[in-house]
Each structure stands twice: as structure tokens, then as C-alpha cells.
Amino acid sequence: MNNHFEPYVRNKRDLKVPYISCQDYTNLEQASKLIPALKQINQSDRNLADAANSYTYILRSNNDDDIHKSIKYGIWTSSKENNEKLNAKYLEGQQDGIPVYLFFSVVRSGQFVGVAKLTSGYKEESFQYWWEIKKWKGHFNVQWLYVKDVPNKHFEHLRNSDNIEVTRSRDGVFLNWETGKQMMKIFEEFSDQKSILNDFTVIDEREQALRQYKYQMQQQRNQQQYYPYYPYQYYDYQQYQQYPQQYQQQQQQQYQNDYWQQAQK
User: Fold this and answer.
1) Of 48, 67, 97, 141, which residue has the fewest beta carbons closer than 10 angstroms?
2) What is the pLDDT of residues 236-253, one digit of tens each?
3) From the record, what ranges are coiled-coil (predicted)?
């Protein structure tokens, strides 16, 4: 597989983010030389829980892949409603000098996976490599501070602003700072080295396959000028991922057959 294809960018509102990776993500000192976003992760003696005030939210991802891309590229987005809330709170915090922290969990994982700081307001450009591309629009810049797998049992005594256990919170729920402070303290003191970083090389392969797929679909779109009768379609990504070479050959052959059949009429 070619690892150096151009980023898939359809229009000026697409966020152009070149692919980056390294061989060992668990060695943060070495990994951060290739991926600058990793430099601030899991630093000791931050003492963020000692702050007088901070704004905190719980965010829930449907999969590990989007967390992986958020950590590597320093970006995140959510539903339109959540984006509006986060943007408003970020702007409010900028005026008052109060940071916004995000506690991330993956749905049905039974744990929280990390903490990030919101470092920008909402931006219109959309990242094209989320797992569900059409669902997420725009982006925020984030700086991940802690990347640790912390089981839910460590948070079960805490409740959110709706008086529900934080481990059962909906995506985008706001936390008062007393609760957020305790969650931050748990992340600061938790010593287990297990994290999503251990799975990054495997998830990198899935990201490569997705980027390659979208690149080849763009190439097919560009070829429409040579085969104008061919109705372009988006093909099933899962089929492509499983059989990339056969899939490409099959679609190219069908592409040409359809063109010549139309041309002979």
C-alpha cells in the first residue's frame, strides 16, 4: 500500500491533515519527535486539580479510531448542539481566563481514556477521516494532557450536573468544577500505564486503509472526464478494506465496460 498519497480534500472547507505515524507510541519521548501533539501527554506535576475554577465536560466517542485521530492531530468535533455549547464556553472562558477541559470515554468501553484541553473555538473546516465522515462537521483544536485507561469504578462515586453518575453521562454533559476537580485528580494520580496508545499501530493501519480508499475514490471521480457516461458511486468501504486489490480491479473493469457499452449505442 502506498503510504504517501495526497490528503483527500474536496473543497476549501475540508481540513487538510497529512498522515503521520511512528513505530512505538508508548515511548512518548521518541514518538513526540515525529508527532508534536504527543509532547504534553502524561506530564507529571501539572496539578491542574488545584485550580480555583475550570470548565469541564464529558465527551463520549462511538469508537477508538476517532480518539486515535484526535490525539494524533489535536482536533475534535461533536454534534451541532455540543459544538455550539463548547464554542460558547470556550469564548466565555477566554474572557474570564478559565480553561475548558474535556474528559473522554468510548461508548461501552467501561472506562475513561483521557483528558484534553480545548485550545480554540469552533472552526468551519471539516476533517475527512473520522469513522463516520458525513456525521461530523467542523472542528476544534485540542491538546491532550492525559492518555490513560481509567476504569469506571474509580469514578462511580461522582455525579454530573444532572445528578447522574459520571460513568453514565450523555455525550456533552457539563460538570461543575468540584466534580471535574476530583476526576482530574484521579487522572493525575492514576499510575497504570495501559492506554489507547498501545493500540495505535493497529489503528494506524485502519487509518491508512481509509485514506487510501478515499484517495482512490477521488481518482475515480477525476476520471469521469474520460468516462462521462459512468455514474459515479461511493463503494462499500468495508469491502474495499478486506479486498483492496481485487476491489480496485473489479471496479475499474466495470468502469470501462459501462463506458464502452454507452459509447457504442
Assistant:
1) 97
2) 555 555 555 565 566 556
3) none
